[in-house]
Specification:
Blueprint (H helix, E strand, L loop, with lengths): L2 H21 L63 H12 L5 H21 L2 H7 L2 H16 L3 E20 L2 E17 L5 E4 L5 E12 L8 E7 L2
Length: about 240
């Protein structure tokens, strides 16, 4: 090893020791590594430039109601069945409060069918059908009339030509019982034959205009959906 090699080695050791003394020690003033996902809440805000305008905080204002789809009042529920503001409409509302699915138009459709079935069953002496559709006292009256006709050995035949009208005339609610009165206007062919076949009442060739006022009743809030005939009268 010559003198030059010794000199360069000594110089390298000297430089390494100096660099270590500067780079290998902490002074306590070093800044921590930057974490872009952390929030430094302890650091005070930095003063901004003169060109930056701070926006005021947004304070919640009064809620603005959403516009209605339309401003038209809801349609009258019983339109075409009862007059608006009438006692009948108020009674229908009372029925609907107990049974929200109640449909007065559906009731009138059923009343038409019941009217035709009852008139036809009475003429035929069909007590079984009548018993399912009539209240007991009304059934007793119909059954008595059938028995009286049978005692005279008379037969009756009734055939509907049409039911012209079935209009709701009155509605009442007493306790849990609702009563709906319907005026029926129909065209009917009705004839009664005696034991010998002779016509004793009506005509097989004449279409009669008949108006009946019938009242149907039902206990609200029960499982039985059927209305029964509780009163009949011939219209004046």
């Amino acid at each position: 090893m010559d003198i030059y090699t010794i000199i360069f080695l000594a110089l390298a050791v000297f430089i390494f020791v100096r660099l270590r003394s500067v780079l290998g020690q902490r002074t306590g003033r070093e800044r921590p590594p930057y974490d872009p996902y952390s929030r430094d809440t302890a650091r005070p805000p930095q003063p901004g430039s003169d060109k930056v305008v701070n926006l005021p905080e947004r304070t919640p204002g009064p809620a603005v109601p959403a516009p209605a789809d339309n401003d038209e009042p809801p349609a009258f529920r019983w339109q075409g069945v009862a007059a608006e503001g009438s006692p009948a409409a108020a009674a229908l509302d009372e029925i609907a409060r107990v049974e929200p699915d109640f449909d007065a138009r559906h009731f009138l459709t059923g009343a038409r069918s019941a009217y035709e079935m009852i008139v036809t069953a009475f003429a035929a002496g069909d007590r079984r059908t009548l018993k399912d559709l009539l209240a007991k006292d009304v059934y007793d009256s119909f059954a008595a009339a059938i028995a009286d006709r049978e005692s005279r050995r008379e037969t009756m035949e009734s055939r509907f030509v049409s039911i012209e009208q079935a209009d709701l005339e009155d509605v009442t609610v007493r306790g849990r019982t609702a009563q709906l009165t319907v005026r029926f206007v129909s065209k009917l062919i009705s004839v009664t034959h005696g034991p010998d076949g002779a016509v004793v009442d009506g005509s097989p060739d004449t279409v009669a205009d008949v108006t009946d006022v019938w009242t149907f009743a039902r206990e609200l809030g029960t499982r039985d959906p059927n209305w029964k005939l509780v009163a009949t009268e011939a219209a004046q």
